[in-house]
Amino acid sequence: MLARVAENIYWMARYLERAENSARIINVNGNLLLDLPEGYAPGWLPLVDISGNRDLFDSLGRRPDEREVVQFLIAEAQNPGSIAGSLRMARENARTLREVLPTSVWELLNEFCSTFRDNLSTGLTKRGRFGFLRNLLSALQSLGGMIEGTMNRNDAYTFMMLGRYLERADMTSRIVDVRSAQLLTRDTQDLRPFESIQWMSVLKSLSGYQMYRLRMRTRVSRSDVLAFLLRDAEFPRACQFCLLEAEHALGGLPRSEEPLQLLGKARRFIDAAELPSLSQAGLHELIDAIQLHVNGVHEGIARTYFPSPQGGERPDING
Question: H-type helices in the chain, by residue range?
Fold first, then answer.
């Protein structure tokens, strides 16, 4: 497989995962604001921080209110990380992959992107947004199921899994970081009953609340949620699970020594973290370090398998 094809399918998977995660956190945030006491809700701006596009949002002069944040995250033409931008780039990458993707996958993605554009105006209204994003999530899950059920387990599939799980690990760490920083302070006695609601929202942002209860069999608490979302080896959106899946995928590729070493280093770092004793500042530093590790794995994969920045093209993955 050509290096350019490997890079395109890797990024197609990352863009699809990014769109799905963005849709999920927008819907969860709307529900969270209904559960918290007036005057203490975190608002909508933290979602921009999770996306990593705060500087762009500010430079465009957008207001930090519900309408403008949602528009920025769903449809902003100048935001390449918006859902619309992510789907557009996923489709563009898929268009170049018609020879390696199952025809049914291309057709479903193409149809879904057209439906998204047709219904976008409805999705930007407060009344229609929840249903629009719920349908988007269902469509993306259906696409993922079709990929799982129809695609050969070859190099193309391997790079798709690498893109999916590295993007997912990055987004999980971002959600934990920003959401935990926005939690209500425990210093006020009246607000303590709302602490579990907020940690529940962190889990729901990753569709993990039910699996947390099944796995942990305990009430929702800070230390247990952090352990579940960062270290769990069974929950498919936990950072450790994602890194294990990426490690498994890389094991089937030649010349994988460097990215495998970087993955092992990242997993050991997460395992060694003293989660129960972390202050909020300490947690932020930990998440920053995790994100650097994940980005390091990405760079190791890019150096090994993708075309060089100078324009040179590696002839194939085995070359």
Answer: 3-35, 45-51, 54-59, 66-74, 83-95, 103-118, 120-123, 126-150, 155-181, 195-204, 209-216, 222-231, 239-250, 257-272, 280-305
Buried b (16+ CB within 10 A) or exposed e, 106-142: eebbeebbeebeeeeeebeeeeebeebbebbbebbee
What global pTM score does this model have? 0.90
The CA-atom distances, in angstroms, between 215 and each of 219, 222, 247 are 11, 15, 23
Domain for residue 319, yes or no?
no
Q: Model confidence over 186-224: pLDDT tens digits?
A: 455 555 556 677 788 889 888 899 999 999 888 888 889
CB 83 within 8 A of CB 19: yes
**Cβ partners under 8 Å of residue 58, min gap 6:** none
317 domain residue, yes or no: no
| Stretch 308-317: mean pLDDT | 57
The residue type of 30 is G
pLDDT digits (tens, 9 = 90+) for 54-98: 999 999 999 999 999 999 999 999 999 999 999 999 999 999 999
- DSSP class of residue 279 equals -
Is 154 within a domain? yes
Exposure of 55 in the CB half-sphere (CA atoms within 13 A): 1
If one counts the domains in the chain, the total is 1
